[in-house]
Structures are given as structure tokens and as C-alpha cells.
UniProtKB/TrEMBL annotation:
Residues 182-245 form the GFO/IDH/MocA-like oxidoreductase domain. InterPro entries: Gfo/Idh/MocA-like_OxRdtase_N, Gfo/Idh/MocA_Oxidoreductases, GFO_IDH_MocA-like_dom, NAD(P)-bd_dom_sf. This is Gfo/Idh/MocA-like oxidoreductase N-terminal domain-containing protein. Residues 31-147 form the Gfo/Idh/MocA-like oxidoreductase N-terminal domain. It comes from Salegentibacter flavus.
Length: 350
């Protein structure tokens, strides 16, 4: 049986039109992005943004021109020797420079009307962070802070189950690495846990007591902080960058539940208690308190879905821009984490 050409051509034309429309819609929502800083983390951002379907990587800027030209030659990313030129060419500026330069470059980007993704800590001082927030509102641009542990698959798997925690314990220990020692361990490591805690405790900070010790750096290398909230919750946080092994674990205790998150191994555990039945199963784990109340222990561990946390934080920011929604980690939240972190540092001298 022969099929007439005049019947086939319209079908192909329609499919071609649909494909063109799809590509147009894809390009429409791809945001032009430029990266400021091409160090260790900056190179990771460059690679992920270059691979993302939600961004078009325009190029990057770095003060170390020799290193920048080497990266440009090796990976094909365009190197801008002029910061203002890069900012002008993009929709989104991704700041991955050293903390001390965050405020200056972020202010340039926001003043130019560009959306801002900025690595943690948001700035060097809380006052600088508040100024960026005010400027972003005036310019009508969105901002997100790179508190990447919010996107850790283990934390994401259990965060909806953390309800009114009353005691939190976190240990973030790392082997020594000269990278990051330009800031205290609180701003380098502990701030991750500070942000995570603030995201689940729906109460204001009441008091902070902390101690820190400088071992091989000019700023504290190991620190412990006790943060009390107005609702009675207490968070005990420990951070060290001079440990013999790496550890990133947090434990959340709440009424009838214990939740553990291993940020490093990307594992989690949820242990719950409920009133024990009259005739529990012979293998059931049952506890009885002094008043004779019996509770049965059971495990309710959610599935952890593997992901690339850095890619997720970058792409959810693109979604927030395109959908005009609130970023997952706002500039305000980044500023609050910094405020509490500074409170920990100030407590060292009390």
C-alpha cells in the first residue's frame, strides 16, 4: 500500500515544529551564569553549571590570571579578565571567592540587577549581609546562600520528620587542610550545622556559650558551642579541623523520636516510640519507665535518594528565579546563620 507524500509531509512538519518549540522553551528558561572565583570549589561549580540544563555558562572571573588561563585552556570555559564585563553579560552571578571578598563582588552584582548565588558564609560581617539583603530588595533580584548540607540526601530524607526537637548534638570533624584557615573553624565548618539547626528549630536564639582553641592557625581550629533557644531547645555543636578522621553527624531528639543524620556517609536513622500494645510481639522492643508506662521502639528509616547536592542547590535556585518563588536558602537565612556564628566566636572571649 502506498502512502501519499502529501500525507507524510504535514506529519513531519508538525513533529519538527514541536521539536523547535521544545528547544525554544528550554533556551527560554536557561539562565546565563558567570562564576566569580576558580579555586577548588569554583572549578566544581564551573563543571556542574556547564553540564546543567538550566544554565548557560558564559564564563568566569578570577584574580589569579595565570591559573584562570590554565583552566580556560584545559576545560574551554571563557575567562573574563574584567569583572564588570562578566557581570554585564549574565543573568546570575555565582560567587565562589574567598569570604573576605564576598561583600564587594556581591554588591557589584546586585547593583547591576543580577541574581546572586553566594557561597557560605554569606559575608564576613552581619552588617554586610544586611546591606546586601536591603540592596537585593531594592533591585528586585533573588539571592541564595550555598549552605549545601540542606541538600544533603540524608538530611532531605528526614527533615520533614524533625518536629520540635528539644536537644540537638552535632559533630563536624575534619582532617587538617590549609584551605579555609583564613577564617575561624566556626565560619569554615560549624556554620553548616548552625544553618541546619536554625532551619528545624522554630524559635529564636536565647543564649550562646562557646569555647575555641587555636592549635596551628591564627584563629580557632576546634570549637564547641551550646546554643539555647527560647522554646527550651538546646543545640550542642562541636567543630574541628585538626582531627584524625572526618565526621559529620547530627542527632535530633524530640518527643518519642530520635533522628540521626550522617552527612558524610549520607545515611540516616529514625527511631520512634509509641505506646506498647497489651500483648506485644515476642520480638518487639519494649521499654518500661518508673511509672509503669510501656513504650515500644520501632524503626522508621526513610529511603535516601542519591543526588549531587551542589548541583541541586544551583538548579533549585534557577527554578526559584524562573518560577518567581522563594529560594530554599534565602539571603536572610544565610545572614542569620552568620549572626549566630559570630555570636559563637564572640563567646570565646567571655
Amino acid at each position: 500500500m502506498q502512502v501519499k507524500a502529501e500525507r507524510i509531509i504535514p506529519v513531519f512538519s508538525k513533529l519538527f515544529a514541536i521539536k523547535i518549540l521544545f528547544l525554544f522553551q528550554k533556551l527560554k528558561y536557561m539562565l546565563k551564569v558567570g562564576v566569580l572565583g576558580a579555586g577548588h570549589l569554583g572549578k566544581i561549580h564551573l563543571r556542574l553549571l556547564n553540564e546543567s540544563d538550566k544554565y548557560e555558562l558564559v564564563g568566569f572571573f578570577d584574580l589569579n590570571s595565570e591559573n584562570a588561563e590554565k583552566i580556560s585552556k584545559e576545560f574551554g570555559y571563557r575567562f573574563f579578565s574584567d569583572l564588570d564585563e562578566l557581570i554585564k553579560a549574565v543573568d546570575v552571578v555565582d560567587v565562589v571567592t574567598p569570604t573576605l571578598s564576598h561583600f564587594e563582588v556581591a554588591k557589584k552584582a546586585i547593583s547591576a540587577g543580577k541574581h546572586l548565588f553566594i557561597e557560605k558564609p554569606i559575608t564576613n560581617t552581619y552588617e554586610e549581609a544586611r546591606e546586601l539583603i536591603k540592596l537585593a530588595k531594592e533591585k528586585g533580584v533573588k539571592g541564595q546562600v550555598g549552605h549545601v548540607e540542606r541538600f544533603n540526601p540524608a538530611f532531605r530524607a528526614v527533615v520533614s520528620r524533625i518536629e520540635n526537637p528539644m536537644f540537638i548534638e552535632a559533630h563536624r570533624l575534619a582532617e587538617f587542610n590549609p584551605r579555609g584557615t583564613d577564617v575561624p573553624v566556626v565560619l569554615d565548618l560549624m556554620i553548616h550545622d548552625i544553618d541546619a539547626v536554625l532551619s528545624v528549630v522554630k524559635s529564636k536564639v536565647k543564649s550562646i556559650n562557646a569555647s575555641g582553641v587555636s592549635v596551628i592557625s591564627d584563629t580557632p581550629d576546634i570549637a564547641n558551642a551550646r546554643i539555647e533557644f527560647e522554646n527550651g531547645c538546646v543545640a550542642n555543636l562541636t567543630a574541628s579541623r585538626i582531627s584524625m578522621k572526618n565526621m559529620r553527624k547530627s542527632r535530633f531528639f524530640q518527643r518519642d523520636a530520635y533522628i540521626s543524620v550522617d552527612f558524610l556517609e549520607k545515611k540516616c536513622e529514625v527511631v520512634k516510640m509509641k505506646d506498647a500494645p497489651q500483648n506485644p510481639d515476642e520480638y518487639a522492643m519494649v521499654l518500661q519507665n518508673a511509672e509503669g508506662i510501656k513504650k515500644q521502639i520501632y524503626f522508621d528509616n526513610p529511603e535516601v535518594s542519591p543526588n549531587n547536592a551542589i548541583l541541586d542547590e544551583l538548579e533549585t535556585f534557577a527554578d526559584a528565579i524562573n518560577n518567581n518563588s522563594t529560594p530554599i536558602v534565602t539571603l536572610e537565612q544565610g545572614a542569620e546563620a552568620l549572626r549566630v556564628a559570630k555570636g559563637v566566636i564572640e563567646s570565646f572571649s567571655k
